């Protein structure tokens, strides 16, 4: 497990470094276009110069969300509240069978409805959405879980 985590961290670091290099190159090209003069090159240069800032923001937001989700996953694991999907039937692709995922989702959703302001229930619901294939709602619900957990920590 530790070896796999190290591989993931190294891979992420390599991707971030490659993106950083790419962003620097984009910035240099944007400055070159602006320095060349002319309305079109300056406009393109400004557009190209904005791209690295957008890219840095996306990388930062993605990494921050990943760290937050990992923090919640560790807390859930420590508390023994992870969803157990080991016994659920799987498709040949390895994904959980749709009917089984929907059944698990219904159970987790009823737990969430009983206490929607508990970050643990929101986390579990987000995971259930993910297993059921609804990535959009999974992300939205995970953001809610992160906010609820942060509020809980702030209260002490």
Distance between the terminal alpha carbons, to the nearest Å?
32 Å
The secondary-structure element order is HHHHH
Q: What is the overall number of helices?
A: 5
- What structural class should be given to the helix and strand makeup? mainly alpha
User: How much beta, percentage-wise?
Assistant: under 5%
Biggest sheet, in brief? none
Give average pLDDT, whole number: 91
- Quantity of strands, as a count: 0
Which radius of gyration do the C-alpha atoms yield?
A: 21 Å
Structure description:
The chain starts with a helix and ends with a helix. It has 156 residues and is mainly α. α1 (2-36) runs antiparallel to α2 and α2 (39-78) packs across α5 (135-155). It has 5 helices and no strands. 17% of the residues are buried. It has helices spanning 2-36, 39-78, 98-114, 119-132, 135-155.
How do the helices and strands line up, and which of them pair or pack?
Blueprint: H1 2-36, H2 39-78, H3 98-114, H4 119-132, H5 135-155
Helix pairs in contact: 1-2, 2-5, 3-4, 4-5
Comma- or semicolon-separated keywords:
mainly alpha; 81% helix; 156 residues
